[in-house]
Fold:
Amino acid sequence: MDVASKLIASATIINAKIFPISYKLKYNPSNIKPNHTYAIQARINRPDDKLLYINDVRTQADFSKSASPMIDVAVIRVGGSSNTDPIKPNNKKECGPVKCPGKPKQCPYSYKKKHRWL
Structure:
């Protein structure tokens, strides 16, 4: 049976101009339970709060190996024109950040990407 999710941490980044966007989430380690799974959700909004980008695949946070795992979150554009977006990717032929341990990987959006940490 699925259980409702609980917010562990959140961050708001103001005036981001270009991808990738580095972020750090502070959380209480006592909120992390063994054998539970945790996921990251990302939303990028314009200053008027209109949604521009969102992650559309589950991005899991694995705390079994590290209390501070490095996680890349892939995001996709949600409508609109790139001419009006205040945030633009460095390279449109490159996938958004995807965790790729040391070797090229086919990302969920069909572009090849090499390992890069935020």
Residues 1-92 form one domain. The two ends are 34 Å apart (CA to CA). The CA atoms of residues 53 and 91 lie 16 Å apart. The beta strands are 38-40, 43-45, 51-54, 59-61, 76-77, 105-106, 112-113.
